[in-house]
């Protein structure tokens, strides 16, 4: 499970650290269903770039905004996966505004992916499957129940909680996420 989480984070890091003029790249729809694992579990691939945003290459298709940590691009498409969408995505959707995908919304989605991989439970599965119910819960600050998660070191649970913080500016960058997962993996291997 930890290997899957680490490989998902590394795939996202490759996008977020993609060099200029096209990078960073925001995936925009990160979830387990968009990850492919080889039969021997040695290769992991990130799929479905239909919601991906390139920072400068797509200026003709996206509008620029200067919200939050800097310049981001707003996608006119509002498609998203409810269980993995950050509170700021839900807020803009509720206000009838363009959905904004950022590096931080990818980090939020990654935390939900971690939760599902580690617990085998879809985030917010206890809510009915109406997207607005899930969105309301996420905007209120509700998060998946950690009682179902077994984490002997507490490190993975803390990483998930850091990545799904309500304030996008308080979420870790992908480089830090990868470092923390690599450290956790080394600790588990060393026993």
Task: Explain what the structure shows.
By secondary structure, the protein is α+β, with helices and mostly antiparallel strands. Helix content is about 40%, strand content about 10%. It has a three-stranded antiparallel beta sheet. Strands 1-4 form a two-stranded antiparallel sheet. A hairpin with a 6-residue loop joins strand 2 and strand 3 (about 45). The protein starts with a helix and ends with a helix.
Describe the structure concisely for a colleague.
40% of the residues lie in helices and 10% in strands. It has 6 helices and 7 strands. It is globular and about 50 Å long.
- The protein's oligomeric status is single chain
Order of helix and strand elements from N to C terminus:
HEEEEEEHEHHHH
Q: Assign the structural class, choosing from mainly alpha, mainly beta, alpha/beta, alpha+beta, or little secondary structure.
A: alpha+beta
Shape: globular
Largest sheet: 3 strands, antiparallel
User: Averaged pLDDT, please?
Assistant: 82
Low-confidence stretches: 57-78
Helix content range of the residues, please?
A: 25-40%
Strand order of the largest sheet: 5-6-7
What share of the residues does DSSP label as strand, in percent?
5-15%
Whole-angstrom Rg: 16 Å
What's the number of extended β-strand segments? Answer: 7
Distance between the termini: 16 Å
What is the count of helical runs? 6
């Amino acid at each position: 499970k930890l290997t899957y989480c680490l490989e998902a984070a590394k795939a996202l890091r490759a996008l977020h650290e993609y060099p200029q003029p096209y990078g960073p790249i925001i995936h925009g729809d990160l979830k387990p269903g968009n990850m492919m694992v080889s039969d021997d579990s040695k290769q992991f691939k990130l799929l479905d770039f239909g919601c991906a945003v390139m920072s400068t290459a797509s200026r003709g298709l996206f509008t620029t905004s200067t919200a939050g940590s800097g310049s981001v691009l707003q996608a006119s498409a509002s498609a998203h996966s409810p269980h993995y969408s950050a509170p700021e995505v839900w807020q803009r959707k509720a206000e009838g505004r363009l959905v904004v995908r950022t590096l931080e919304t990818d980090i939020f989605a990654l935390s939900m992916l971690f939760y599902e991989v580690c617990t085998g439970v879809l985030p917010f599965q206890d809510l009915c499957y109406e997207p607005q119910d899930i969105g309301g819960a996420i905007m209120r600050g509700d998060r998946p129940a950690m009682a179902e998660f077994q984490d002997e070191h507490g490190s993975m649970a803390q990483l998930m909680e850091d990545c799904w913080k309500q304030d996008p500016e308080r979420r870790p960058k992908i480089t830090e996420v990868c470092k923390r997962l690599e450290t956790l993996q080394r600790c588990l291997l060393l026993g």
